[in-house]
Amino acid sequence: MSAGAQPLSPRGAVAPSPPRAASAPSELSESQRSIIRLATFSALALYATVRWATLMTPAPMWRLVGLWALAVALAGAVPLVRPYGKVVALVLTVVLCLLAFPIAGLQWHSFIHLRIAVSARHIGDGLSGLPTALVPYTGPSQTIRLVIALGAAVLLLDAAIVLAFAPAAFGDGRRAAVALPLIALAVVPSTLVRPEFPYLQGLLLFGLLAAFIWGERIRRDAVGMALAVALLAGVVAALVAPQLDQHKAWLNYRAWTGSVTDVRADSFNWNQTYGPLHWPHSGHEVLSVNARTPDYWKAENLDMFNGYAWVLGAASEQPKLPPVSLAALTAWTQKVRVTVTGMKTNDVIAPGEVIGRPAQVPAGVEPGVDAGSWTSVRTLKSGASYEVTSYSPHPSADQLRQAGDGYPWFALSNDLTLTIPQTGAPPQEFTQVTFDPFHHRRNLANRPANGPSIARVLDASPYAGAYALAQHLAANAPTPYAFVESVLRYLSHGYTYNQSPPLSRYPLVNFLFKNKLGYCQQFSGSMALLLRMGGLPVRVAAGFTPGMRNGVHHQWLVSDIDAHAWVEVWFPQYGWVRFDPTPASAPARGGVTTPSQLRSLPGAVPGLFSSRPSVRTTIARRPSTRFKRFRASESAS
After folding, report:
1. Cβ-contact 141, 149 below 8 angstroms
2. Residue 208 CA from chain centroid, whole number
3. What is the DSSP letter of 554?
4. CA–CA separation, 565 vs 296, rounded Å?
5. Lowest mean per-residue pLDDT among 108-112, 134-138, 182-186, 441-445
6. Which is higher by pLDDT, 590 or 392?
7. Cα gap 267→218, rounded to integer Å
8. Is the pLDDT of residue 267 over 50?
9. Are the C-beta atoms of residues 618 and 269 closer than 8 Å to each other?
């Protein structure tokens, strides 16, 4: 048969030749699959790395991008050298993984000279400080920043190694092993710092993940259909997600962990003692507050001065104060949700005064000492959450200057009263003095029928200098607000923030006229003392400053560093208005944000900033006293 001859069919006809086998145009070659696999891996890893960067402010983007590039290089280069032997591939992998340490922030000197012990110590320091660090981390600790960056390196390189050593048959199990570390890299920051446009972020993550899982397996002629299905699924999810997101956990894991494990819980004694500061101060989160606007989160009103310090007063029937103006109530009322995350307390913590009864407090509540304050029947621990509607006014300076003089002085008499020890008297004998209202004209040298004059009582006490100062500042102030301003100015010059002032018998006198060293207790206590002596209704408040905002969501994370004391003065139309005389450099006011910075403060107490499983304090008891109470009669002139 000649070369061009065709076989004959049984009947003698020429049989048709079988069709040639040809690759379908829609199938991808192995090299094309590898390129798509690496490209979709790189895109997903880059997005996850950018999300991880939100854990630090400012973010070390060049370090994190360097770690991403290292992971992409590993995933792409190792398969190219695998034909030369497993040993070559393993050596390249080890070298690339070791480079992650200096790129993440480990000193190059320690890396090049193999100072393993020094490097391990740096990493250990970062790991020990990480549990108390608030995110996004804004502190100066390079070891904490190193550990956060190394977390990204571990997840990126883990995914890259699995991809690099994947067999030719790249199945679903292997894809999942690569994708899971990258999903964690993207999702973990979102659980700690709520992202901007969260549903859009979720849609983007879904698209990148779908491209990595199915990108290389989609036939060319089915790409359009696959994109349409993925887009439809993403849009449906974006529409359903807001209905499922109720901004609270479906399962309260905090409550579970609080009941079955020994969770660290700080506790605070808000009564002022003025000694070295022994509040917890390690950066441990104690509260999270969901609120429309940030505020000071108040725990207690310290409205009684016992001769030495401001403390929580005893429960008693008090005259009712007139309501605030409707405009003020409308402007400064908000509903907040408070979640206890790391402390134990019986105080219902809220901004300003609570309107109505708090909702969802475990085991219920009972009224506190002052109107607008509440205490829980059972101690609130980690996981407890409740809602309150609170009024906390923030009028402008002009509004306070024009607030008027419509003070209900009789209803405010308790807030014009101080307990004054007498020089030379028995140590347990005090006199309760109710001071004259601001600019109330009378001759203080006259002797009322029921006791000595206010001036004589103060002259015979350790507080004679404070009273003279208060009268001088009040006399030169035309309005109550001007008097408040004058006291704030006075305490802003010549007084130094110090967390370990010397102890003394009369600490506020010592602070005002001798050492002039103190922290929020001394500043707020002295301001309240001077204002009451000058005739303004005032009290000390204790609790927390706003804390750190959690991303763009209306949530504030409050740590033990934010524990604070301030002053509240009563004004017509507005009620109790907050003033803070403590210097802005104080930790709770944002001047210091990390335990390492706190240790460098003047007068820092050694060992004060170590992490402790629980902080228990003894409440300062009021001295047993025999009171001689008097109030200057209105008829005295």
Report:
1. no
2. 32
3. S
4. 10
5. 441-445
6. 392
7. 59
8. yes
9. yes
Per-residue pLDDT at 106: 81
- Helix (H) / strand (E) element for 225: namely helix 223-244
Tokens of 400: 């306070």
Q: Residue 635: how many CB atoms within 10 A of its CB?
A: 8
CA distance 126 to 130: 6
Q: Are 354 and 372 in contact (CB under 8 A)?
A: yes
Neighbours of 456 (CB within 10 A): 13
Question: 549, 545, 620, 624: which is closest to 590 by C-alpha?
Answer: 545
- CA–chain centroid gap for 517, Å, is 28
- The tokens of 87 are what? 């040993």
First CA to last CA across the chain, in angstroms?
144
* Gap between the Cα atoms of 296 and 275, Å rounded: 24
Token couple for 190: 């979102």
E strand or H helix at 492, and its extent? none
Cβ atoms of 334 and 292 closer than 8 Å = yes
Sheet containing 350-351, strands listed edge to edge, beginning at the edge strand earlier in sequence: 350-351, 297-302, 538-544, 563-571, 575-579
Secondary structure in 3-state letters for 182-221: HHHHHHHHHHHCCCCCHHHHHHHHHHHHHHHHHHHHCCHH
For residue 120 the two structure tokens come to 């391990």
- Residue-by-residue DSSP string for 384-426: -EEEEEEE-----HHHHHTS-S---TTTTGGGGEEEEE-TTS-
DSSP 283-305: --EEEEEE-SS---EEEEEE-EE
- Yes or no: say if 353 and 576 are a contact pair by the CB < 8 Å rule: yes
Lowest mean pLDDT among 148-162, 178-192, 283-297, 440-454: 440-454
* 3-state secondary structure labels for all residues of 1-50: CCCCCCCECCCCCECCCCCCCCCCCCCCCHHHHHHHHHHHHHHHHHHHHH
Q: Model confidence over 611-635: pLDDT tens digits?
A: 333 333 323 333 333 334 343 332 2
Predicted local distance difference test score (pLDDT) of residue 284: 80
Give dist(CA 201, CA 195) in Å, integer: 8
β-bridge mates for residue 432, sequence order: 419, 629
* DSSP states along 504-566: -SSHHHHHHHT--EE-HHHHHHHHHHHHHHTT--EEEEEEE---EE-TTSSEEEEEGGGEEEE
What gap in Å lies between CA 186 and CA 201, rounded to an integer?
Answer: 10
Question: CA angle at residue 169 from 168 to 172, to 5 degrees?
Answer: 130
Beta strands in 545-589 (DSSP E): 548-549, 555-559, 563-571, 575-579
Residue position matching structure tokens 């920051």: 189
Asked which of 198-212, 287-301, 579-593 is least confident by mean pLDDT, the reply is: 579-593
Q: Where are the domains of the chain?
A: 30-194
Transcribe 92-140 into DSSP letters.
Answer: HHHHHHHHHHHHHT--HHHHHTT-HHHHHHHHHHHHHHGGG--SSB-S-
How far is 554 from 484, CA to CA, in rounded Å? 32
The helix/strand/coil state of 546 is coil
- Tokens 């009451």 -> residue: 532
Q: How many residues does the chain have?
A: 637
Rounded to 10 deg, the angle between the 61-81 and 142-164 helix axes is 20
Please tell me whether residue 386 adopts helix, strand or coil conformation: strand
The whole-number average pLDDT for the span 333-358 is: 91
Render pLDDT for 144-154 as a digit per residue (tens, 0 to 9). Answer: 888 899 999 99
Asked if 530 contacts 473 with a C-beta cutoff of 8 angstroms, the reply is yes
- The single-letter DSSP state of residue 590 is T
Q: What is the pLDDT of residue 222?
A: 55
Please give the Cα distance from 95 to 70 (Å, whole number): 11
Q: What does the alpha-carbon distance between residue 186 and residue 205 come to, in Å, rounded to a whole number?
A: 8
